[in-house]
Design goal:
elongated; two-stranded parallel ribbon; single chain; 1 helix; alpha+beta; 52 residues
């Protein structure tokens, strides 16, 4: 199988910037991987209820 055209963009902690790049330059990418990213608003995650 020939290699995919375009780059695989991997972002760790800079998810919003990577998402923006992927949207603006989708013709240059073959994929997008986000690791440890947060929402652009920086909103905290909802607290889970403790299990009994």
């Amino acid at each position: 199988m020939p290699p995919a055209a375009g780059a695989l963009l991997v972002g760790a902690l800079e998810g919003p910037d990577c998402i923006r790049f992927a949207v603006d330059h989708s013709d240059r990418l073959s994929g997008l991987v986000l690791w440890g990213s947060c929402s652009p608003t920086g909103a905290p995650r909802p607290k889970s209820k403790p299990s009994r």
